[in-house]
Every structure is written in structure tokens, then in C-alpha cells.
Design goal:
Structural class: mainly beta
Helix content: under 10%
Radius of gyration: 26 Å
Protein name: Bacteriophage phiJL001 Gp84 C-terminal domain-containing protein
Strand content: 25-35%
Order of helices and strands: HEEEEEEHEEEEEEEEEEHH
Shape: flat
InterPro entries: Phage_phiJL001_Gp84, Phage_phiJL001_Gp84_C
Distance between the termini: 80 Å
Domain Bacteriophage phiJL001 Gp84 C-terminal: 195-277
Strand order of the largest sheet: 2-1-7-8-9-6-5
Largest sheet: 7 strands, antiparallel
Number of helices: 4
Number of domains: 2
Oligomer: single chain
Number of strands: 16
Length: 295
């Protein structure tokens, strides 16, 4: 009995072929999307791949070494497939991608040409372009810890252990006023100090930006008003009354870990690590060598 691969190879060797491409995308939130450049829908590996979805892709080329594969997926932004908001809020970042070559007359005949993840995504003029990264891309990532004075963990992850929803570390409020798409003013955060949310996370709970997340650049008091400035503009205009959730921020310093979060036991940095001046200069009486910048 011949395998599907042998049957497919015979079809390819026949000269006249009935081939198309199909893509299956599995997002990290569990949602699955199927696309094909054929003119009718196809069922591939149990996933309905929709036609007329505007998806296209360059030929897959794999290079030696660990370089990112040069394949790209290009498609139209539509409510039936991938929306502008999906791209803006990063819902497809890191999604798993399967790229199939399919005999559309017999969709069970397939060849898996590519498997990897979505990397950088660019959008504009009603379309998107996504970089496809092969499985070998994971081997490019540093493994192990880095010796730094500051903590190398993300606030709230498993090794950090801080509960981001603990009392005093999270707040919800409605936007009182806004200036553009980066600066918002809140009136019910009087119990929080200035810079409490700096480098923290903001999540939009209502309004046109609902579901989107961002990072806080600075927050400060101006009379009874708490002003929060974001690192990046929101995708859509901010409306008065839009609700947000703010999480406390961390500058990854040892003192902050101890005083703000009471979590120094889990601090993952090396605050007493000698600076470069310790090994490059000779000792001078009365002069500390702690790596600090000096005139």
C-alpha cells in the first residue's frame, strides 16, 4: 500500500497538477484559522481553510544554519479572517503556522512545506505582512541566566512569584479626560503614590480599545488628578469613561523588589556584583569600586 507521500509525488511527476496552498494558524489563545489560495474552501487536517481570504505566501526556502526562514505570509485584513485590531493587539504574535501544499481535487493529499511561528507583523493599507519563523529559530534564543545587577524576570511570572492582582498592586478606574492617545487622567487613584504604575501594564476594559494592552511610561499627581502617560499611542481614540486596569510597575532593582513588593527572596539579579572598574583599575584608598558612573 502506497503512502500519501508516494501518491502525492506521483501526482507531482505527472506534469499537469491540481495544486494550491493552505495555511493553518493556531493562536496562543486556542483559536484556529484556516486559509487557502484556492477558489473553494478545503478541509485540511480537520480545519476548514477558507477561500477568498486574501492570503498569499512566497515560496518557502530553508537555509542552512539558524537564520530565520525567508518565508512571508501576506493577506488582506477582513472581518472574516484577520482584523486590524487582531494585529494591533498582538493576538497573532507567536502563533503556530502550518503551510501545506495540497491537491485540491483530493485534499487528503498534502505535503507539509513549513511549520513555525509568526514573527514580526507589519500592517498598512488594509493588508498585513507577517514574517514566518521556522522551528530552528528557537535555537537562536539565549539559554540560561544573564549576570546583571537588575532582576532578569518579568513581574508576576512564575519565578518572580508576585501576585499582580494582590491588593495595592492593581487598580481599575474610568478615564476622566485624555490628551491624544497616550496621556490619560484619572480621579480615583489618590491612594497610590507617584510612579507606582511606571513600567507597569495597562489593560483596556471597555471602549474601542477593549482587550488591548500597553505599558506605562510615567505616572504622576497633578492636584487630585493622577496622570498616566503610555509608551505608545492606543490604536483607537480614548473616550471619557473608558475603563482601564493598571498593574504596578517594577524597575527590576533590588530595593524596589524589597520595599515595594516585599519579594527580595525571589529577586533574580546580582545587586552586589562588582563593576568593570573593579577589574580594570588599581586600588585607590577611599575610592569605592562599585561600577557607578563618576566624573
Amino acid at each position: 500500500m502506497r503512502t500519501i507521500g508516494e501518491v502525492m509525488q506521483k501526482h507531482l511527476n505527472g506534469g499537469a497538477t491540481t495544486l494550491c496552498r493552505a495555511w493553518v494558524v493556531r493562536r496562543r489563545d486556542g483559536r484556529v484559522f484556516g486559509f487557502t489560495d484556492h477558489d473553494t474552501d478545503l478541509m485540511i487536517e480537520g480545519v476548514l481553510c477558507e477561500a477568498s481570504s486574501g492570503m498569499d505566501a512566497s515560496a518557502v526556502e530553508s537555509s542552512t544554519g539558524l537564520a530565520v526562514d525567508n518565508s512571508q505570509a501576506v493577506g488582506a485584513l477582513s472581518s472574516l479572517g484577520i482584523s486590524d485590531l487582531d494585529i494591533e493587539t498582538g493576538r497573532f504574535d507567536g502563533a503556530e503556522v502550518f503551510h501545506w501544499l495540497v491537491n485540491w481535487q483530493q485534499p487528503e493529499q498534502t505535503i507539509l512545506q513549513f511549520r513555525g511561528t509568526i514573527g514580526e507583523v507589519r500592517r498598512g493599507n488594509g493588508a498585513f505582512e507577517a514574517e514566518l519563523r521556522g522551528l530552528s529559530e528557537a535555537l537562536n534564543k539565549p539559554v540560561g541566566r544573564t549576570y546583571l545587577r537588575q532582576c532578569d524576570r518579568l513581574l508576576g511570572d512564575v519565578k518572580c512569584g508576585v501576585d499582580l492582582f494582590a491588593e495595592g498592586l492593581v487598580a481599575e478606574d474610568a478615564v476622566d479626560t485624555s490628551k491624544g492617545r497616550r496621556v490619560i487622567e484619572l480621579k480615583h487613584l489618590s491612594t497610590f503614590e507617584e510612579d507606582w504604575f511606571a513600567q507597569g501594564k495597562v489593560t483596556w476594559l471597555s471602549g474601542p480599545n477593549e482587550g488591548a494592552e500597553g505599558l506605562v511610561k510615567v505616572d504622576y499627581r497633578r492636584g487630585p488628578v493622577h496622570v498616566v502617560e503610555l509608551w505608545e499611542e492606543t490604536r483607537f481614540p480614548i473616550g471619557n469613561g473608558d475603563r482601564i486596569r493598571l498593574h504596578a510597575g517594577c524597575d527590576k532593582q533590588a530595593g524596589t523588589c524589597q520595599e515595594k513588593f516585599g519579594n527580595f527572596f525571589n529577586f533574580r539579579g546580582f545587586p552586589h556584583m562588582p563593576g568593570e572598574d573593579f577589574s580594570l583599575t588599581y586600588p585607590i584608598a577611599g575610592r569605592p569600586m562599585d561600577g557607578a558612573r563618576r566624573a
